[in-house]
């Protein structure tokens, strides 16, 4: 399943990219979103590239039909890797939800828009489960869309410090 999303911010793209390439931003964001067990597994930054891989534990509050409950535990461990080309302001995020047959990724493009900036995300959600995979994909995509507002609000709040 594919879908697009846009996260808008009230500062220029260069300032947003400064935040998006700061390890402390990720640690603070995940904490502010209520995740636990936050651990930076890998982190690297140069003049042209930034990459971070973080593991955290989140509560899965998605209303899952009984037939899908065995695929979606109530507490999930997530490993998320964000990688950015700092010059082009393009990136990719890959999400592994441990214990589930769902894979999530997004290609990102950050650019100035209006009086601020916007991160354009092209999401891909896939599942390898025969017959039920489409339902798992839809549940996951709907959850991403439902939580996007809180994610953007948290990021916007942190952006005030950059």
Q: Radius of gyration, Cα only, in angstroms?
A: 16 Å
Principal-axis shape: globular
CATH architecture term: 2-Layer Sandwich
Provide the succession of SSEs: EHHEEEEEEH
With helices defined by DSSP (H or I, 4 residues minimum), what is the helix count?
Answer: 3
The CATH class is: Alpha Beta
Q: How many separate structural domains?
A: 1
Q: Any low-confidence stretches, pLDDT <50, length ≥5?
A: none
- Binned strand content: 35-45%
> What's the CATH topology name?
Alpha-D-Glucose-1,6-Bisphosphate, Chain A, domain 4
Q: Mind telling me the CATH superfamily name?
A: START domain
Task: Give the N-to-C terminal Cα separation.
Answer: 35 Å
Summing up helix and strand content along with how strands pair, one would put the structural category as alpha+beta
- Main-sheet strand order equals 1-7-6-5-4-3-2
Mean pLDDT: 92
Helix percent band: 25-40%
Largest sheet: 7 strands, antiparallel
Query: In total, how many beta strands?
Result: 7
What can you tell me about this protein's structure?
There is one protein chain. With 162 residues, this protein is an alpha+beta fold. The chain has a single domain, classed as Alpha-D-Glucose-1,6-Bisphosphate, Chain A, domain 4. It contains three helices and seven strands. The protein has helices spanning 13-20, 23-32, 133-159, and strands at 2-9, 36-45, 49-59, 75-85, 90-97, 102-113, 116-127. It has a seven-stranded antiparallel beta sheet with strand order 1-7-6-5-4-3-2. Strand 2 and strand 3 (49-59) form a beta hairpin. The chain is globular and about 45 Å long. The protein starts with a strand and ends with a helix. The relative contact order is 0.24.
